[in-house]
Amino acid sequence: MRPFLIPSLVMAALLPVARADEGMWLFTKPPVRQVKEKYGFEITPQWLEHLQKSSVRFGNGGSGSFVSANGLILTNHHVGSGMIEKLSTKERDLLKNGFYAATAGEELKCPDLELNVLVSIEDVTARVTAAVKDGQSPDEAAAARRAVTADIQKKSYEATGLRSDVVTLYQGGAYHLYRYHRYTDVRLVFAPDVMAAAFGGDPDNFEFPRYCLDFCFFRAYENDAPAKTPHFLKWKTAGAQENELVFTSGHPGRTNRSVTLAQLESMRDSGFPHRLEQIFRGETLLRAWSDRDRENARRAKGAIVGTQNGRKATMARLNGLLDPALMARKKESEAKLRETAEEAFTRIEHAEKASREYEMRLRMLEGGDGFGSGLFGIARTLLRVADESAKPEGERLGEYRQASRPSLELDLLSTEPVYKDMETLRMANALTFLCAKLGATDATVQSILAGKSPDARATELIQGTTLDDVEVRRKLYEGGKEAVAASADPLILLAKLVDEEARGLRLRADATGEVISQAHREIATARFARDGDSAYPDATFSLRLSYGVVKGYMDGNVTIPPHTTFWEMHERHANQGAIAPFDLTEAWKERATKLDPLVPLNFISTNDITGGNSGSPVVNREGELVGLIFDSNAPGLVSDFFYTEEKGRAVSVHPAAIQEVMKKIYRADRVLEELTH
Amino acid sequence: MRPFLIPSLVMAALLPVARADEGMWLFTKPPVRQVKEKYGFEITPQWLEHLQKSSVRFGNGGSGSFVSANGLILTNHHVGSGMIEKLSTKERDLLKNGFYAATAGEELKCPDLELNVLVSIEDVTARVTAAVKDGQSPDEAAAARRAVTADIQKKSYEATGLRSDVVTLYQGGAYHLYRYHRYTDVRLVFAPDVMAAAFGGDPDNFEFPRYCLDFCFFRAYENDAPAKTPHFLKWKTAGAQENELVFTSGHPGRTNRSVTLAQLESMRDSGFPHRLEQIFRGETLLRAWSDRDRENARRAKGAIVGTQNGRKATMARLNGLLDPALMARKKESEAKLRETAEEAFTRIEHAEKASREYEMRLRMLEGGDGFGSGLFGIARTLLRVADESAKPEGERLGEYRQASRPSLELDLLSTEPVYKDMETLRMANALTFLCAKLGATDATVQSILAGKSPDARATELIQGTTLDDVEVRRKLYEGGKEAVAASADPLILLAKLVDEEARGLRLRADATGEVISQAHREIATARFARDGDSAYPDATFSLRLSYGVVKGYMDGNVTIPPHTTFWEMHERHANQGAIAPFDLTEAWKERATKLDPLVPLNFISTNDITGGNSGSPVVNREGELVGLIFDSNAPGLVSDFFYTEEKGRAVSVHPAAIQEVMKKIYRADRVLEELTH
Questions:
Q1: Are A427 and A494 in contact (CB under 8 A)?
Q2: C-alpha closest to that of B83 among B181, B184, B228
Q3: Among A57, A292, B101, B105, which is least packed by CB within 10 angstroms?
């Protein structure tokens, strides 16, 4: 699972009824009754506080936990890998070779990692809602909410010195002020090599059985010394047994359990099939192009890995939406709410239906699916930033407002290499896709192709553009409207050609989006008025508790046991011919016979998680650390919309496996000592 | 290019005006005037006869030529590879290791290869057309034509002992009787290893520059001795120079240059995009599944190679149909004919338009795209063969008539292994595709899915069926209608569930096809009445002559020179890390330094070719062999519809390269001696 990135969209509320082991629960409203009834365990305030203060949020979108009183933090290798890469040099490839600080002095300071530990939660709903007056327009209301939120955060920070975030819960049903202790001096302590950490690569991504040592250790420092962290999770080598109750504490990023059935149907019938079609095209063509040449392969690698990850996630989610039983469950849960908010549901249905009329043109012409080129994106940005800058701030498209300028400039003037051969391939593919979707005889399509075939037109456009040169971009950016108007760059001309229609489509989509948001707020209000905060809200990258049991499942006729072992990992390595992504380092191969083959390696549990939970600790009733979340299996990916425990599972690294390799493969005795004593 | 397989559909006529080096010309109507005017060369009857009698047709769908007076035949390795595989044993892998008969006695007899040499051509148009009476229904006319054709063939065979085929030309404008000398004792003489023959594999398939030693040698025998072949092509080591006039003589399989603009538009807007979407899905999923496991990779290899070949060919053809200039040319050439056959063109337009209403259901439910499983195909065959056998012969669907029984039984009772894991993958994919195309709420789709998600339903169906067992199939086949009616096999039940709707769609499509065929016959008649046989007819796997010049082209800003060398081949081998499909044998690597690096390896020319021309000789004005056709480049693949010489090229092996490797790598002196002396 890739680290979760903070969402740019917030979806609205329709709260599911919790069943089975479902729920990403607020620490202020834990599932005390549910766990008591089902498992006979009493969640106490002390137990919760200890877990909360042992939990760590990674600023780059993951989770972790303290595992010693001296600030030692356990998380996933794939959460830390961005840092590990930044700490690498040409001579010192820490991803490839791994890292171990044999002494405290060797721990490596990360350049820009912020960790947060949640200290307190305050309900500020009354203050926020009081700021919004009856009769305000949606824009005015939003501005008032923004203002009061900023004020609450500012005052809290001034009073406490703590990072203070107002979190919108239940789609506006509640607002909570989360205060965090920040750690900004974070050092890398230990990381295995990436071959072991990401064993199985893309083929095994989102699968189970699984064999990943997806862990690493950082340490929080304060005043140049290891932080004192009295709240930490005690290491339990034996882990949890089959059917044992376990909890996770982490920061799930975003779920869409509140979207309506009509919205899910749109995704099922239109959005996801379209996205998949695009993924299948892109992956096939990039792989074929990769196969032609080793340099092509190098250039396309990142794009292919991203596409493959998206393919697996999208397919699993679509398969969930195509499960009539899950959709029926959604319909049933919606039925009760419709009694009080029928009209809002109907408005969403109409809006979804209306959007089907223009959504393909929107995707192709405004969304960029019909162009497929990063350079075209740059051309459009240059054109629009020039046009938008001439308008008053309040009338600009969101991404051209002053607050977005730094990130816009970062993108626009990035020196990231542009490969014209790969750009041509992608654009030819996108133009062919455009013809298939809007029709070769469509007037806009004909003007885009300018009398040429997709291949010939893509070649002409990409060969002809000079936007791959950052200095050219800079001049156009700084030259503003006049410079862009004078440009004869073929991609700038193309962006101009479609801009009026593309902007028109964007306006229609924004209007639809506004209707839907408003309806969702009404539904959420109706629900919240009735149920209050007795249910759990959609995920918001804030701390949540989930519970479940260690448990296998049936896949067709095949029994999937709850854990794997080193024996199976080595068997997979050998069966796959010991080649990437199933290879292991020389050091591993030399020392592998020392590993106890029956030690559990990865295990699965029914906990309700999603992206952002990567690195979350799994704890037992005693609050001891019995696992490290690193992935969902494919059936679990549908948790974006529904929790399902038939086959959906959270996948974790077992503490015994971490201990075993740190001792026998990596010989990281200093860290091991700190962990287990 | 894969060997051409004889077409099951014959497309109708709209004859293009020959320009540039266009044309697959009949030997009875060679392009004498065109070649004289453009190149100043006079094609004489003697020159033609020699070339005709030196040309060989391979029964499995390829071409070749005699290159010695003792029956030595040159063709492509990929034309011979089926035979080479059949001649291999577990201990003797002739594909992998190549083959050289160092003595005449070691030449290996092929189990089932038939070669044909065209001896004479007789125009039988009058006899055929006289058999069809005015006022007959289309069915009656077709039956009368079949009867007279069979009679002509039978009488010719009895009189001459020669294989006698009546060939339909100009979509019924003319009928020619082709008489062939047959060779049924054919022996393998020499084949290089497949690494050299198919160097570059799929990545380089349909590409240029290219580096393939795609040749091998057979020998025709009669009475257990090498056949006497006084007509053979003299070997010219120096080959042809840039811009030199060259001819090919071979057996292009099928072209669709006669379809109407309305039909091309249907392919462009619907048929090809659908096919590509299916290919992209299939290739992505099969490759991802392959990557998971070496055994998966072995199982999926053939399916992946086939899909990849189809992808490249389909993409190139679609790109051609999306070229407005080519479509305008088609429109222009059609305009003249519309003056006399306007109504027939209009009928085709209406038929194409009408078919858009049901074609997606047709593809999904009758074409099988919505099921994707070989086992489902078996279930449907079992169901239908039982139903159809109960009907009179004349009322049965074509594939269930008596004449098709042997091949039906061969398929149905094949012991080819069935992999249920791969079947499940393919069926889950197809069911998801079905939902996307017909909609998840469609009544038929819902009954197919039976309340489950595509993944779950596919798993259930494939796990539950016993049709992978040949004995189960045999019992159902032999048990007929009663046995099939009693079967509870889930795939049989599924086939029953959709059969009524699927058969209904088939009837609609057949009716549309009949309207189109009839209209085409009218157009062809109008055209033929006006122009006679001055133009060339669409390809029909009968002997054709094409002309052109050795010539490079521009690909964007890149100049593609007309030939490659060993130096470039070795550079590609090294640059790609010497791994498959760019690897070479150990023997090659040892001896490579002996090769003259500047010897031309593959070259391109403007000759008009298509599938079936694989193995065709390229000859110069003197009728000497100067090359061996083995592929089109990607822009040339559009030749199915239009000839284009802007970038479209035939790709050949150069005789100097064959000579060089036979001498220095394979040390096949005996064959070399025979070739060059």
A1: no
A2: B184
A3: B105
The yes-or-no verdict on residue B6 having pLDDT over 90 is: no
pLDDT given for residue A138 in this prediction = 67
From CA A271, how far away is CA A252, in angstroms rounded?
23
A99: domain CATH number is 2.40.10.120
Closest CA to A60 of A3, A116, A118, A10: A3
Q: Chain A partners of B211 at a C-beta cutoff of 8 Å?
A: none
pTM of the model: 0.87
Contacts of B318 in chain A (CB under 8 A): 432
Task: Report cis status (omega within 30 of 0) of the bond before B617.
Answer: no
How far is it, in rounded angstroms, from Cα A47 to Cα A529? 30
One domain, residues B109 and B66: yes
From the number of C-beta atoms within 10 Å of its C-beta (0-12, 13-18, 19+), residue B70 rates as: middle
> A376 and A488, same structural domain?
yes
- Residue among B281, B319, B576 whose CB faces A455 most closely: B319
Q: Do A319 and B207 touch (CB under 8 A)?
A: no
CA–chain centroid gap for B99, Å, is 26
For A111, the token pair is 């350049």
**Confidence class for position B521, pLDDT limits 50, 70, 90:** confident
End-to-end CA gap in chain A: 31
Range of the domain at B642: 25-114+184-254+540-676
* Cβ separation A293–B576 shorter than 8 A: yes
Query: Which residues in chain A have their CB less than 8 angstroms from residue B207's CB?
Result: 292
Specify the number of domains making up chain A: 3
Whether B419 and B317 share a structural domain: yes
DSSP-assigned letters across all residues of B3-38: PP---S------PPPP-TT---EETTS--HHHHHHH
Q: How far apart are CA B328 and CA B332, in angstroms?
A: 6
What is the per-residue pLDDT across B152-184, written as a single tens digit (0 to 9) for each?
999 999 999 999 999 988 877 789 999 999 999
The answer to whether the CB atoms of A322 and B203 lie below 8 A apart is no
**pLDDT recorded at residue A534:** 74
Mutate to test the interface with A, among B268, B278, B280, B637 (most CBs of A within 10 A): B280
Which among A134, A131, A132, A121 is positioned nearest to A169, based on CA atoms? A121
Contacts of B294 in chain A (CB under 8 A): 575-577
Q: For B199-357, where are the E strands, in sequence order? A: 216-222, 225-226, 245-250
Residue A244 near residue A549 (C-beta atoms within 8 A): yes
Using a CB-CB cut-off of 8 Å, the residues of chain A touching B315 are 432
B-interface mutation test, from A270, A280, A304, most B Cβ less than 10 A away: A280
What ipTM score was computed for the predicted complex, to two decimals? 0.87
Q: Which two tokens stand for residue B77?
A: 């390795």
Model confidence over B202-221: pLDDT tens digits? 899 999 999 999 999 999 99
